[in-house]
């Protein structure tokens, strides 16, 4: 039984850059031209499955399926899956699953893709719709039985038993969408890449979001003598658990190497039906197809609204005005409640209902900051940050300085970056005004804030309350307390800790959905608040390198590339933190302008079914900081503050 790597089209042939650098509708790979052997195999397989579905013999003839027939069967399958996953009282779950199995068998008889295991249509992200059992379809696919030494057979049997227990009692861990009433609701995504597969389950267990990922290698298996279905062999080698902002836990399965076989009995551009050697039956839908269905739903709603407006324009106008006024009033009250709680948490005094003529929100917040900590100057650090920054604005925004901002504390212990949301430019507001004012207030607040675990959050909250400009922004603020680096990160900006050329820690991104990050903003922005920021505390050592940056870096440069570049700047060339930051920012700009580079942003977009190639042009702001010993005060003189980190 020969093994071959999973087929994929050449990356060089598909790296066509879109001139507009925008996400377009998802498209599918083109099928290769079928040879006569593939077509004969497809027709023979169709006849065999049709005979099995109709109960006829192999010699019976069947009509060639049409696209309309396939569409009708797919629609019936989706309806049956929906009924099975959302059963009502009195429904017989066994009968519902049998109905899904029957429709899957009928649809498999019309499979338009010969040798589905070798088709590039198989690659990409697939959302699990249904997971059940069908020993009959699994046997018809003719998959090989797992073979190996006695010890390997025993381990495989233990793995199969563990899977069966998961399927029965914890269905979410077995990737089951059936029986949701027995476990937490979850989404299951299978991501197929050349030679690899990631089975990702996202759910919520208690107060924390939970993400489970089982990864493994994929190889195609040529059919044995007398068999017609090409299947794939999957060997799982890694299990990863992520719970909220807790550290990621990774377990190696190399000692077990569980093996399974999967045969795809139906495959087209948006639907896939697979069976496993253990009797599993799975119906999946391309992630892009799910997004297209949701877009169609909203288009139908907008069409209905337009039709109603054409017949009753006055009623539509009054209704829209009433809803807008209600949303504005509710949002204003919600923002006031949030500001009260933030003011209480940060120690800022609530503004008087009738302020004096000389007072302003900024002056009030700064006065509260100045009186917040009477112990200023008591902290004597052992380490400080020797920091420098590099900033390259987007070419179209260079005349107004871009939309990013940053600050570096003069006392050498805090720094931060912010990325203004560019959508405000569409309503005539400069997005950079909010981010620059936010960072200016954060730097001012460092004069009265002692380094500690709550310092970054305090700086973010005070800056948020003090900023009066319209707009919104992401924010990442770091604070060094001896050998601990504390951070508050909100949005898709972030930071990395690098030690001896290796990446030790990288903050995850906060996004509502792809390319839609968390953000804080003015009262009319309907954005998030600092309370939802992720907080971290990371151990650092002398000689470590800390990089804080906006998404202009992370969307174009992979983390290991950034770690190698800044390490080479410091250790090989002996450059300052300022020079290292500029070098990294220039490298990110070069990657952003490269139409053939498979950037992190392009890779993430393609995993969700979007057609995007090349880098992502954006503002780029990078702060590079070296962890160095704090200067020791001379005897007989009061300890001076840490030296300023000048750019």
From TrEMBL:
Cofactor: Mn(2+); Mg(2+)
E.C. numbers: 3.1.3.16
PPM-type phosphatase domain ranges (all copies): 388-627
GO cellular component term, pick one: plastid
Keywords for this protein: Hydrolase, Magnesium, Manganese, Metal-binding, Plastid, Protein phosphatase
Catalytic reactions on record: O-phospho-L-seryl-[protein] + H2O = L-seryl-[protein] + phosphate; O-phospho-L-threonyl-[protein] + H2O = L-threonyl-[protein] + phosphate
Similarity comment: family membership: Belongs to the PP2C family.
Name listed for the protein in its UniProt record: Protein phosphatase
């Amino acid at each position: 039984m020969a093994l071959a790597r999973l087929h994929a089209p050449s990356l060089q042939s598909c790296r066509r850059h879109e001139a507009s650098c925008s996400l377009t509708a998802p498209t599918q790979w083109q099928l290769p031209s079928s040879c006569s052997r593939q077509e004969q195999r497809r027709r023979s397989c169709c006849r065999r499955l049709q005979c099995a579905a109709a109960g006829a013999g192999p010699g019976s003839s069947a009509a060639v399926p049409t696209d309309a027939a396939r569409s009708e069967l797919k629609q019936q399958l989706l309806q049956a899956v929906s009924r099975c996953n959302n059963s009502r009282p009195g429904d017989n779950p066994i009968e519902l699953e049998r109905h899904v199995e029957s429709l899957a068998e009928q649809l498999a008889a019309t499979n338009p893709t010969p040798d589905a295991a070798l088709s590039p249509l198989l690659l990409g992200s697939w959302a699990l719709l249904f997971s059940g059992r069908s020993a009959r379809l699994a046997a018809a696919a003719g998959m090989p039985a797992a073979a190996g030494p006695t010890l390997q057979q025993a381990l495989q049997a233990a793995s199969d038993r563990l899977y069966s227990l998961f399927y029965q009692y914890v269905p979410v861990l077995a990737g089951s969408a059936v029986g949701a009433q027995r476990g937490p609701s979850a989404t299951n995504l299978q991501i197929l890449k050349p030679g690899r597969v990631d089975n990702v389950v996202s759910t919520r267990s208690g107060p924390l979001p939970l993400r489970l990922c089982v990864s493994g290698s994929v190889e195609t298996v040529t059919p044995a003598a007398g068999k017609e279905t090409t299947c794939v062999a999957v060997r799982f080698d890694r299990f990863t658990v992520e719970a909220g902002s807790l550290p990621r836990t990774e377990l190696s399965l190399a000692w077990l190497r569980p093996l399974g076989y999967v045969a795809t009995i139906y495959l087209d551009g948006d639907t896939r039906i697979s069976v496993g050697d253990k009797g599993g039956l799975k119906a999946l839908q391309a992630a892009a197809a799910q997004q297209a269905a949701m877009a169609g739903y909203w288009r139908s709603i907008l069409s209905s609204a337009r039709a109603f407006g054409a017949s009753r324009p006055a009623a539509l106008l009054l209704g829209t005005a009433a809803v807008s006024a209600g949303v504005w009033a509710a949002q204003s009250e919600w923002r006031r409640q949030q500001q009260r709680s933030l003011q209480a948490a940060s120690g800022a005094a609530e503004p008087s209902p009738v302020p004096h003529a000389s007072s302003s929100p900024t002056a009030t917040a700064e006065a509260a900051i100045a009186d917040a900590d009477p112990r200023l100057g008591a902290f004597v650090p052992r380490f400080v940050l020797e920091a420098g920054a590099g900033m390259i604005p987007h070419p179209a925004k260079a005349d107004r300085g871009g939309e990013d901002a940053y600050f570096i504390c003069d006392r050498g212990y805090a720094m931060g970056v912010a990325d203004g949301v560019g959508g405000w430019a569409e309503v005539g507001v400069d997005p950079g005004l909010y981010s620059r004012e936010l960072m200016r207030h954060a730097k001012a607040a460092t004069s009265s804030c002692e380094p500690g675990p709550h310092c970054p959050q305090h700086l973010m909250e005070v800056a948020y309350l003090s900023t009066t400009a319209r707009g919104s922004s992401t924010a990442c603020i770091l604070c060094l307390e001896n050998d601990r680096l504390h951070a508050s990160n909100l949005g898709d900006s972030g930071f990395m800790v690098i030690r001896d050329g290796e990446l030790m820690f990288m903050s995850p991104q906060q996004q509502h959905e792809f390319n839609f990050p968390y953000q804080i903003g003015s009262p009319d922005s309907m954005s998030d608040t600092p309370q939802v920021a992720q907080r971290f505390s990371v151990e650092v050592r002398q000689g470590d390198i800390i990089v804080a940056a906006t998404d202009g870096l992370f969307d174009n440069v992979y983390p290991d590339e950034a770690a190698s570049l800044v390490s080479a700047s410091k250790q090989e060339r002996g450059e300052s933190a300022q020079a290292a930051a500029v070098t990294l920012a220039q490298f990110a700009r070069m990657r952003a302008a490269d139409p053939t580079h498979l950037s992190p942003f392009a890779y993430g977009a393609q995993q969700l079914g979007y057609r995007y190639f090349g880098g992502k042009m954006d503002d780029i702001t990078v702060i590079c900081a070296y962890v160095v010993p704090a200067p020791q005060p001379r005897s007989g003189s009061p300890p001076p503050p840490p030296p300023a980190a000048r750019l």
